[in-house]
Amino acid sequence: xxxxxxxxxxxxxxxxxxxxxxxxxxxxxxxxxxxxxxxxxxxxxxxxxxxxxxxxxxxxxxxxxxxxxxxxxxxxxxxxxxxxxxxxxxxxxxxxxxxxxxxxxxxxxxxxxxxxxxxxxxxxxxxxxxxxxxxxxxxxxxxxxxxxxxxxxxxxxxxxxxxxxxxxxxxxxxxxxxxxxxxxxxxxxxxxxxxxxxxxxxx
Length: 203
Description:
alpha+beta; 2 helices; eight-stranded antiparallel β-barrel
């Protein structure tokens, strides 16, 4: 009778250990909170600058005879700080805070070099949905919408400053994360995060 009791206790203990392991590693393989940082390429604001300058050079300048010519672009960012809260196994809500610094240098008809600086600060609530969500690999997408504040300055003259706010968004159809607690993140989409952005996150 004692042998049967020991065997029964062993079986019950094994069941509960396996059940607890399944709950930890299968249904919820990592914590509900995730924070990360990223660096993007060609945000909507930067893309607008490039397209505007191209159209000005290709269409407007030949018609007006303007000799102003763009010399170079210098884009820094967008740099992002991200937070996610998993309220479901494959769904999360959160927000991204982004900053970018953009500089355009051009020369006028007298070949004098000028520059324009445009800084952007964005806050975008986001919703992430996961196609695959394993402990060490995730394939997902996200959508988000928020606001961007833009400040601009022209040359060295402090009185030629301007600021304004507008709509900001991000649509990312494909993204991936590799790693368990600390992981590498790569996202491809369109919006304030850029056409592509990469970084790291911690759960």
